[in-house]
UniProtKB/TrEMBL annotation:
It is found in: Cytoplasm. Residues 13-239 form the Class II aldolase/adducin N-terminal domain. Its EC number is 4.1.2.19. The keyword Chloroplast does not apply. Belongs to the aldolase class II family. RhaD subfamily. This is Rhamnulose-1-phosphate aldolase. It comes from Loigolactobacillus coryniformis subsp. coryniformis KCTC 3167 = DSM 20001. Binds 1 zinc ion per subunit. Pfam families: Aldolase_II (PF00596).
Amino acid sequence: MSQQKFIDSPYVEEMCKITHGLYTHGWDERNGGNVSYRLTKEEVSQYADTNKVLRNVPIDFDASELAGVYFLVTGTGRYFKNVIDNPEAETGLVQIAADGHSADILWGYNDGAQPTSEFPSHLMTHINRLHKDSNQRVVMHCHPTNLIAMSFTLPLDEKTFSRILWKMQAESVVVFPEGLGVIPYMTPGTNDIGEATAEKMKDFRAVLWPHHGVFGAGDSMDETYGLIETIEKAALIYTTIRAQGGQCLQEITDDDLADLANRFGLTPNPDFLTGKSLVENK
Ligand code: 2HA
Ligand code: ZN
């Protein structure tokens, strides 16, 4: 076994960079947001200080499908602002216990913290995304301003949100061809919101939590972060259009969306590909 410490691993470095990026974007004020990063046994076992159970913490649902799986997870109540300076207190490495009702802490949370209050929601999402994609690694929750604002001014339906976001920039349909999932407003930190989110994650990699934020899933930190960045950039363009008076004189048309999909060899969600134009009287 190497003498290298987990704090010096690329996984902790990625977690520091991503949480710092989320914070500096203004999407994770105070203790807002949470990230979980699935790691393999091979990855974890390379380090000198990840093979002893430090503590065990309960999990409030049956996560036995993930028994034995490792996650690097941000801590409950912790500020993303601080992760970069003190990852060993603000984040932790856990392994889901055999019965699925608790997690063993192997590293981190060294001043008594434990995984995010949204950990059940993360695990439920990991389970459903893993059914779709065996490379699924990351679940990321944050509070992007413009997307949240849109959840007050638009009807909470997936077609409306997806089409508007697709039409804000050519990149959108290429990055999230399946569109954006939307759940009703629900209380955070509950298994109910976790179950509703995970159900949507069967069809989408990003799910809007109205008046709160977004849940994203993906194969890597960069991909998941990039997905959320692209959605929020589209939301910023929408906000800016509204601030400029709201009227669109031209747009990315439904035919343009189909051409983009062809060019990049993608199949966009067929339910969202045709519908209302953003240009009035069209
Ligand atoms: O972790 O963002 O949804 C704090 C939150 C809860
Ligand atoms: Zn939140």
